[in-house]
Specification:
21% strand, 3-stranded antiparallel β-sheet, alpha+beta, 1 helix
Protein backbone atom coordinates (compact mmCIF):
# COMPACT_ATOMS: atom_id res chain seq x y z
CA UNK A 1 0.00 0.00 0.00
CA UNK A 2 1.25 3.47 -0.85
CA UNK A 3 -0.26 6.75 0.30
CA UNK A 4 0.52 10.19 -1.10
CA UNK A 5 -0.52 13.66 -0.03
CA UNK A 6 0.24 16.72 -2.14
CA UNK A 7 -1.24 19.28 0.26
CA UNK A 8 -4.66 18.98 -1.38
CA UNK A 9 -5.47 15.30 -2.00
CA UNK A 10 -4.69 12.00 -0.26
CA UNK A 11 -4.38 9.06 -2.64
CA UNK A 12 -3.98 5.41 -1.72
CA UNK A 13 -2.56 2.80 -4.08
CA UNK A 14 -2.59 -0.98 -3.74
CA UNK A 15 -0.31 -3.08 -5.94
CA UNK A 16 0.53 0.05 -7.90
CA UNK A 17 -3.11 0.87 -8.74
CA UNK A 18 -5.03 3.89 -7.39
CA UNK A 19 -7.80 2.68 -5.06
CA UNK A 20 -9.01 5.80 -3.22
CA UNK A 21 -8.65 9.56 -3.44
CA UNK A 22 -10.06 12.25 -1.19
CA UNK A 23 -9.58 15.96 -0.68
CA UNK A 24 -7.64 16.84 2.46
CA UNK A 25 -6.21 20.32 2.65
CA UNK A 26 -3.97 21.72 5.33
CA UNK A 27 -0.27 21.89 5.91
CA UNK A 28 2.44 19.65 7.28
CA UNK A 29 5.87 20.41 8.60
CA UNK A 30 8.26 18.06 10.33
CA UNK A 31 11.35 18.94 12.31
CA UNK A 32 14.15 16.69 11.05
CA UNK A 33 15.02 15.93 14.68
CA UNK A 34 11.56 14.54 15.43
CA UNK A 35 10.33 11.00 14.61
CA UNK A 36 7.97 10.32 11.74
CA UNK A 37 5.07 8.20 13.00
CA UNK A 38 3.03 5.71 11.00
CA UNK A 39 -0.52 5.02 12.04
CA UNK A 40 -3.43 7.02 13.32
CA UNK A 41 -4.13 9.05 16.39
CA UNK A 42 -7.64 9.41 17.74
CA UNK A 43 -9.27 9.80 21.15
CA UNK A 44 -10.30 6.14 21.03
CA UNK A 45 -6.78 4.97 20.16
CA UNK A 46 -4.17 7.57 21.11
CA UNK A 47 -1.19 5.50 19.96
CA UNK A 48 0.92 6.69 17.05
CA UNK A 49 2.78 3.41 16.67
CA UNK A 50 2.58 0.86 13.89
CA UNK A 51 2.25 -2.66 15.26
CA UNK A 52 3.21 -4.84 12.34
CA UNK A 53 5.92 -5.46 9.81
CA UNK A 54 6.96 -3.25 6.92
CA UNK A 55 8.69 -4.96 4.02
CA UNK A 56 9.69 -1.73 2.30
CA UNK A 57 9.52 1.83 3.62
CA UNK A 58 10.35 4.88 1.53
CA UNK A 59 9.70 8.51 2.35
CA UNK A 60 9.86 11.23 -0.29
CA UNK A 61 9.72 15.03 -0.09
CA UNK A 62 7.23 15.07 -2.97
CA UNK A 63 3.96 13.30 -3.76
CA UNK A 64 4.86 10.66 -6.35
CA UNK A 65 2.82 10.39 -9.52
CA UNK A 66 0.81 7.30 -10.33
CA UNK A 67 3.44 6.31 -12.92
CA UNK A 68 6.25 6.61 -10.35
CA UNK A 69 4.32 4.51 -7.84
CA UNK A 70 3.63 1.84 -10.48
CA UNK A 71 7.34 1.77 -11.45
CA UNK A 72 8.38 1.36 -7.79
CA UNK A 73 5.83 -1.42 -7.33
CA UNK A 74 7.00 -3.25 -10.44
CA UNK A 75 10.64 -2.97 -9.32
CA UNK A 76 9.82 -4.66 -5.96
CA UNK A 77 6.97 -7.05 -6.83
CA UNK A 78 9.05 -10.16 -7.49
CA UNK A 79 10.30 -10.06 -3.86
CA UNK A 80 6.74 -10.74 -2.71
CA UNK A 81 5.51 -13.20 -5.34
CA UNK A 82 3.04 -10.73 -6.85
Amino acid sequence: MVATWNGTDIKQYINGELKTSQSQGGSYTNDANQPLYLGRRSSASPSYFWYGKLAVAQVYKIALSGAQIKANFNAQRSRFGV
